[in-house]
Amino acid sequence: MKEKRNSIDFVLFIVILMLLAVGLVMIFSASMVTDLQKQGDGYYHLKRQAIWTVLGIIAMLTAANVDFRKFRNKKLIKFSMLIILGLLVVVLFMPAAKGASRWIGVGSLGFQPSELAKIILIIYLADSLARKGNNVKSFIKGVVPTLLVAGLFSGLIMLQPNMSTAVILFATAFCMLFVSGARWLHLGGLAGSGILAAAAFAMSADYRRKRVFAFLNPWQDPLGDGYQAIQSLYGLGAGGFFGLGLGQSRQKWLYIPEAQNDFIFAIIGEELGFIGAFFVIALFGILVWRGFKIALNCSDKFGTLVATGITAFIAIQASINLLVVSSFMPVTGVTLPLISYGGSSLLFTLGSLGILLNISRYSKRNGVE
After folding, report:
1. CA 333 to CA 263: how far, in whole Å?
2. Per-position b or e across 237-272, b if 16+ CB within 10 A of its CB
3. Which residues cross the membrane (predicted)?
4. Cβ(330)–Cβ(212) under 8 Å?
5. Residue 39: pLDDT above 80?
6. CA 14 to chain centre
7. Disulfide: which of 63, 129, 167, 257 matches 180 by Cβ 3.0-4.6 Å?
8. Quick one: pLDDT band at residue 369, thresholds 50, 70, 90?
9. 202-211: which pairs have CB atoms within 8 A and are 24 or more residues apart?
């Protein structure tokens, strides 16, 4: 007898589309000035993001109609793990851009393996933790193997270097361990150790130390390491409650470098004000709420853990971006999911959200209740 499927979580679907719409509008607004100057085409970034948005929506709708349990195939998981680990090694030998080797390919045809690694690691850990059962409460049998795999992925990504993405992956694995039933004592000890390790790593390289000191006092070097943080705060402050108006940003006039990327939220705050910024944060809040609701309502432990992992990585990444833009964290290269410019990031994020939508079809309770 064929299993009955519910409709997808409509609230989540609408929120995703709203975030995409905000992203396209704000990418055009943030990039138009520099596109006219450098490319001679004010629609340069908009057109490329629109193409990736269409491809991403196709990937999302496709994934939303593929039973998520089909991803729980041992051969498929092992093959995917080998491929992504190989790509994470290969990317280290690619030509560096802005001091980091993160891309495979050329120009708009390139992609970041670290974005694909998020999905593959989540599926692998969900399958592994679901199979462990009560063994997840054991530090040696449950926690250590999980963190070793997450550490391998994070370590390769750190070598690019890309500490922010590595932290997101590790934090996502930590959330999945928590939901799977790992002991509080083990997780608390690991959290403390992780914070100390992150602090030590942040101080281990000159450029990371400069970012930390710039975060503590950006005005000490206003034209150097503190420049982006200061310009971002100017943008957020200038927006006030109602904003300067769509398209009226002053910071995008070559003050914030590549404003359509990591610091697009500063342009949102400047043009749309507190109301617009709060609206975007609220949309992410609803997305996270629906994601964790899907995880809680899923009767399949594998599905629960996949939904948790996908929701966690989006929540963590969005939180880091917002904290950086508002100068509550040192500047780091983390995009705002679904809104910042970036092809491979958008494609794989929408693909993962498609899996989340599919899991919602098999939830015990679905809808807006």
Report:
1. 9
2. ebbeeebbeeeebebbeebbeebbbbbbbbbbbbbb
3. 7-30, 50-67, 79-97, 103-126, 138-157, 163-180, 187-205, 263-290, 302-326, 338-359
4. yes
5. yes
6. 19
7. 129
8. very low
9. 202/163, 202/330, 205/161, 207/99, 208/163, 211/330, 211/331, 211/332
Range list of H helices, 133-263: 144-158, 163-180, 184-202, 206-216, 227-239
List phi, psi (to 5°) of 243. Answer: 85, 165
The pLDDT score that the predictor gives to residue 185 is 81
What is the number of other CB atoms lying within 10 angstroms of the CB of residue 189?
13
Two tokens at 64? 């939303």
State how far the Cα of 62 lies from the Cα of 69, in Å rounded to an integer: 14
Separation CA 332–CA 69 (nearest Å): 35
Closest CA to 359 of 47, 30, 4, 5: 5
Which pLDDT score is estimated for 4?
Answer: 61
Q: Which of 350, 310, 318, 352 is nearest to 334 (CA)?
A: 318
CB 124 within 8 A of CB 169: no
Structure tokens at 235: 């943008």
Q: Mapping DSSP to helix (H, G, I), strand (E, B) and coil, where does residue 224 land? A: coil
Cα 97 to Cα 258: distance, rounded to the nearest angstrom? 15
Fill in the amino acid letter for 112: Q
Q: Which two tokens stand for residue 143?
A: 């926690």
The H or E element spanning position 90 is helix 74-90
> 331 pLDDT exceeds 90?
no
Alpha-carbon distance of 353 to 367, in angstroms, equals 17
Mean pLDDT (whole number) for 269-285? 96
- Angle in degrees, CA 79, 84, 87, rounded to 5: 130
Cα–Cα distances (Å) from 155 to 19, 87, 108, 170, in that order, read 31, 14, 26, 10
Report how far apart, in Å, the C-alpha atoms of 38 and of each of 28, 35, 297, 334 are.
15, 5, 50, 24
How many other C-beta atoms are found inside a 10 Å radius of the C-beta of residue 91?
24
